[in-house]
Amino acid sequence: MRRRGPLGRLLVWLDDRLGLADLGKLAVKKEVPVHKHTLWYYLGGMTLFLFLVQVATGILLVFYYRPSAEHAYESIQFLMAEVEFGWLIRSIHAWSANLMIFTAFLHLFSVLLLKAYRGPREITWLSGVMLLGVAMGFGFTGYLLPWSELSYFATRVGTEMAGAVPLVGSFVGRMLKGGDEVSGATLTRFYAFHIWILPAACFLLVAVHLFLVQKHGMSVPPDVERSGGAKGHMPFFPSFLLRDLVGWLSVLAILAALAAYFPTELGEKADPFAPAPAGIKPEWYFMFMFQTLKYLPAHILGIEGEVVGIIGFTVAGVLLLLVPFLDRRVSGREDSRLFTWIGIGVILYILLLTYLGYTADPTI
Amino acid sequence: MTNQSEERPVHEAASYGDTSRKRFIGWLLGTSAGAFLGAVFYPVVRYLMPPPAAESAASTVTLAIRPEDITANTAEIFKFGSRAGILVRTPSGELRAFSAICTHLSCIVQYRPDLGHIWCACHNGHFDLNGRNISGPPPAPLEAFTVNVREDQIVVSKGD
Known about the structure:
CATH architecture of the largest domain in chain B: 3-layer Sandwich
CATH superfamily of the largest domain in chain B: Rieske [2Fe-2S] iron-sulphur domain
CATH superfamily of the domain at 34-278 in chain A: Cytochrome Bc1 Complex, Chain C
CATH architecture of the domain at 34-278 in chain A: Up-down Bundle
Number of helices of chain B: 2
Helix content of chain B: 25-40%
Radius of gyration of chain A: 23 Å
CATH topology of the domain at 34-278 in chain A: Cytochrome Bc1 Complex, Chain C
Strand content of chain B: 25-35%
Oligomer: heterodimer
Largest sheet of chain B: 6 strands, antiparallel
Shape of chain A: globular
Helix content of chain A: 55-70%
Radius of gyration of chain B: 32 Å
Order of helices and strands of chain A: HHEHHHHHHHHEHHEEHHHH
Distance between the termini of chain B: 79 Å
Strand order of the largest sheet of chain A: 1-2
Structural class of chain A: mainly alpha
Number of helices of chain A: 16
CATH topology of the largest domain in chain B: Rieske Iron-sulfur Protein
Number of strands of chain B: 10
C-alpha cells in the first residue's frame, strides 16, 4: 500500500484510517475448492445479484407507484404506457423476481443434496431458509401492488390461508389484511411490508449469511471428501469473482431479453364485487401449494381440509428449517441417503403439482 | 478488570451478601428491561392491529336490479353492506340469494349456466342451488338470504 503520487498518498491516508490492506489480505486469502460440483457454488451469488437488481428497479418503481386502491392500478397503467422505459423497469423487476426465486430454490436444493448444511454451517442454513421465506414474502406482497383482478383474488386466498392457521391465525390474518377483508388498507400494508420491512429483514439476513459463508468457507460435499478431497483451489479474487461476473452479465442479458419480448402484463383492475375469474392462479412458486389445496377434500378426520393442508405446509417448513439438526448421520460424516431421497421426493412432488397446476382443467 | 487492587475490596464487601444482592440487581435489571420492551412493543402491536370495522347494520338491502332484468339460469353479484352476495334465478324461474363468499378461502363465487349451479373458480368448489357444498374443497354451505319481490324491487334480507 506504500505508493507514490497523489493517488498513492490518498490510498495510504485511507488505509491508515479504514484498514483497507486488511480487507485486501482477506480477499487474497479466500479460496474456492475446485471439484465436480463447483458449478453449484455460483447460485448463491446469482441470487444475490438478482436481489440487487430488485433493489435498483424497485427504487425506480417507487418514483411512479401510488399505493392506494384508487390509484395503484392507474399509476402502473401510466408507468407502462406513458413513462419512458417504464415498461422496461417494471418488466425487469417482475422477471428478476421470478428468476431470483428460481435461483434461490436451486441454491436451496443444491445445498440440501450436497449436504452443505452440515456442521458448523447450521446457522448459514437457517439464515438461508429464512431468506427464501423472505423472498416468497416479497413475491406475495409485491403481487398485490398492481391491484389487478388476479392479484386481488390471489391475496384473498393467501391471507385467508394465513388466517386458517390454528391459534395465531385470526391475529395474523387481520394483521396482514388491515381489516376483515382485502381492501385498500391491505394494499397500504403490503406496500409497507414490501418496501420497508422485508428489505430490512433481507439485508440483515444476507449480512449474516455472507458473513458465515466468509467465515466457514465453501463446503466440500461429503462424496468429494471421501474420494480424496477437492482437485485444487482457485482464488476467490479474481478467478471466482470473474466467473461470477460472467454469470451476472449473462443473466442481465436474459432479463433484458425477457423484459423486451415478454413485458409483464397488467390485466383487469381488481373489483371486490366481481366473481373470481376462471383459471385464476398464483405465482408459479406458490402453485404446488395452491394445487394441493384443490385436491384436499372438504374434511379430513373431521378437520377442514384446508386447515390440514396449511398445518402440513407449516410443519414441512419447520422441518426444512431443522434439517441440519435432524440429519444426525451427516454430522457424523456418514452417508445420509435418507435425506437425499427425502430431498429428491420433495423436488418431484413440487414439480408434479406445479405441472398439474398448469395443465389440469380448472373448470371440472 | 484493568486494576485488580481496586476490584478486590468490592469483592470482599460483597462476599457475605453477594448472591442475594446480585440476584436482586439481576431481577431489577431483568424486569426493567422486560417492562421497557413491553412498553415499546405493546403500543406497536396494538397499532398494527386495525380497529374493528363497524358491522354493517343493514340486515336488508334493496337491489339495483329489477326482477325482469335477471333471466332464468343466470345470476348477479350484489353488495350486501361491505360484502358480496349472489342473486340466482334458477332454471325454473325462482329467485334465490346467498353470500357470494366461498366458505373455503373466501373467493367470490359465480353461477355456471352450463352446470346449473354455483361454482368457485379459485379451488374448484361447487354449490347447489340451495347453497350446499356438493363437491370440491369448500367445508360448509353458502349463507342463504331471503329474497322478497315487492312490485318491481328485489329485497334481500339476512337470516329469518
